[in-house]
Write a structure and sequence with these properties.
With 132 residues, this protein is of the alpha/beta class. The protein is 23% helix and 30% strand. It is globular and about 40 Å long.
């Protein structure tokens, strides 16, 4: 499971549920869980998550990691990034061909968490398509 510390739980739930269309699981109001493909995304107050880990909640700039979402085509990369932007994300890097032969771009969610949306024609990380 991936858990993100967020400043405004309601705003973040709206971004991931309504903006990106992730399926939200039932949970108490101070936390939110979304079902992902083979994993889960958890949202928890930034202050509370930092307290739980016994670290400072202060910080800015690059967090030292990016979350990645692989999709099935270049068109889907563009569509996913546009969907995120219309839901309140900010563009970090416009989608373009990569040096490794794929296609990707980056956005930041409302709390500045960095997301890469990528199409890799050489390595599919999703479930196998039984109809292929």
């Amino acid at each position: 499971m991936i858990t993100l510390g967020v400043k405004d739980i309601e705003k973040s739930v709206k971004f991931y549920k309504e903006g990106l269309g992730l399926p939200k699981m039932e949970s108490s109001p101070e936390v939110a869980f979304f079902t992902l493909n083979g994993s889960w995304l958890g949202l928890y107050g930034r202050e509370s998550l930092a307290e739980d880990a016994s670290v400072s909640s202060e910080g800015s700039g690059f967090n030292g990691f990016a979350l990645a979402h692989n999709v099935a085509s270049e068109t889907e990369v563009n569509r996913t990034i546009e969907q995120a932007l219309s839901a309140g994300a900010t563009l970090s890097k416009a989608a373009k061909k990569t040096s490794w032969g794929g296609y990707s771009g980056y956005f930041k969610d409302p709390d500045g968490h960095l997301w890469e949306v990528a199409y890799n024609p050489f390595f599919w990380v999703g479930p196998k398509d039984e109809n292929a």
